[in-house]
Amino acid sequence: MFDEPLSNLDAKLRVSMRVRLTELHRQLRHEGVSATMVYVTHDQIEAMTMGDRICVLNGGRIMQVDTPGNIYHHPRNKFVAGFIGNPAMNIMLLDIEPGTRGLRLADNLILPLNTRLSNLLEQYPHSSVWFGIRSEAIQLASQHDVSAFDAHITNVERMGNEDLLHFDIGEQHMILRINSSPDWAPLPGESIKVKFNLEAAFLFDKKHEENLA
């Protein structure tokens, strides 16, 4: 049983100890030793990199028990989706446009849904739904792409190998992740165009916040 054993270490030592503990666990299993480890942490990186299975808790209640890959790619509910991932998943409550199966991003902006997402709303009883999409599933688009959305950069976090662009579409605030480039350094106040990879998007029930998929 490990109860946040690395929480007081500096960042560099924490990384090396994560690797060492994982290697030790693998070595014990290879030698046939019963080596089940329960590791308690608030650090999602530790959970995702060290765990074979992860149990996500919220207020003492189990939200999901699954592999790291399924926790990330198939979150059971809105809490798990927003808790796992850095930056956190973009999640917003959007009205469903009657008849078109699109979602209203702003007063005059409709996000058309693909067949998969439209089918999830066929028997859906509410007029709005939680829409979730991760930062890597939003892409920059050409200024001439008529299917893309105009966006306004509000902040830029430069991480070295990548940049996190905070941007607004109407009143909706989102974050997208791009590889940094010496040829273009985006700045707050600039206008961009963005597209959404809806194959990687999620819909969550407005009331119960369960994944509709």
From TrEMBL:
- Can you tell me where the transmembrane regions are? none
According to the entry, every stretch annotated as the Transport-associated OB type domain falls at 132-204
Per the UniProt entry, the Enzyme Commission number(s) are: 3.6.3.19
The record's section on InterPro entries has: ABC_transpr_MalK/UgpC-like (IPR047641), Mo/tungstate-bd_C_term_dom (IPR008995), NA-bd_OB-fold (IPR012340), P-loop_NTPase (IPR027417), Transp-assoc_OB_typ2 (IPR013611)
Give the SUPFAM superfamilies listed for this entry: MOP-like, P-loop containing nucleoside triphosphate hydrolases
Q: Name one GO molecular function term.
A: ATP hydrolysis activity
User: Does the keyword Hydrolase feature in the UniProt annotation?
Assistant: yes
Family matches, as Pfam families: TOBE_2 (PF08402)
Give Gene Ontology CC terms.
Answer: ATP-binding cassette (ABC) transporter complex, substrate-binding subunit-containing
The UniProt keywords, alphabetically, are: ATP-binding, Hydrolase, Nucleotide-binding
- Looking at the keywords, is ATP-binding present? yes
Name of this protein? Maltose/maltodextrin transport ATP-binding protein MalK
Q: What is the lineage of its organism?
A: Bacteria, Pseudomonadati, Pseudomonadota, Gammaproteobacteria, Enterobacterales
